[in-house]
TrEMBL record:
Family matches, as PROSITE patterns: HTH_ARAC_FAMILY_1 (PS00041), HTH_ARAC_FAMILY_2 (PS01124)
CDD domains in the record: GATase1_AraC_1 (cd03137)
Protein's name according to its UniProt entry: Helix-turn-helix domain-containing protein
PANTHER family the UniProt entry points to: ARAC-FAMILY TRANSCRIPTIONAL REGULATOR (PTHR43130), HTH-TYPE TRANSCRIPTIONAL REGULATOR RV1931C (PTHR43130:SF3)
Signal peptide feature range: none
Amino acid sequence: MTVHRIALLALDDVMPLDLAIPAQIFGSRPETSYETTVCGLGTKVDTTGGFTVLPEADLERVRAADTVIVPGAEPPGRPPEAVLAVLAEAHERGKRMVSICTGAFALAAAGVLDGVRATTHWQYIDDLERAFPAVSVERDVLYIDEGNVLTSAGVCCGIDLCLHIVRRDHGAAVANRVARGLVAAPHREGGQAQYVPAPVPAAGDASLSGTRAWALRRLGEPITLRELARHAGLSQRTLMRRFTEETGTTPLQWLLNARLGRARELLETTDQPVARVARECGLGTAANLRLHFRRALDTTPTAYRRTFGR
């Protein structure tokens, strides 16, 4: 595979977890093509965790990168002009620009977010909207993919965004393997191919993970809302409320996303005909699978297989 160079730009007061998430997910693995380097303006960067990071490279490595990731800093401030110039240059050259949490402020200050949808940590979202009126700020989303500009909400949403990038680059099967290694949810769906939002979930009274696991084992079978509620021991109304609180989406939308995820894995890892893939993932017919692929991914099952199939 062609090496894909990633620059993690660590700014002063960087949040350690925001830096560690992409460093871990984009680490060297046989099944991915990433070469990740921590970059900085100087020889050391102070973190909010009370320790210092020693960058491996300077801003020149940012210029040479294919993807530039800016982890969050707290409080978010305006980076030095040299940093803003490098970010603006990378964006103008068509590099993929990514922010984790309040890293969006650095991208916005460099003009990278002008005219596109973007998000950040909920505590700072009003500040982002006031400071950068040219940015279309979105609330209550985990992350947003606008093609070559991607932003995530606070901290752990960076995991969702980074796994989404792996999924975009290498397919669902590889992203799911990376997620299993992290003991993380494989992928939190919620939108279209170039704009992927999902409401930030609130903690429910009790987990419905057992019901979701039960449904995942039966994706090839018809599953109704009544059957989900019966398995959970809840009324349908209560199931709808609790399910949305835990996952940020409705039970039937979650089920559709799970079936599409299963279809993607089958298309990537098997030579089964599209009609059989549709049956095994519970979408019934090849025509129905094509319809949902077109709506959710703006492509066809056959084209997807050509891109990601073994």
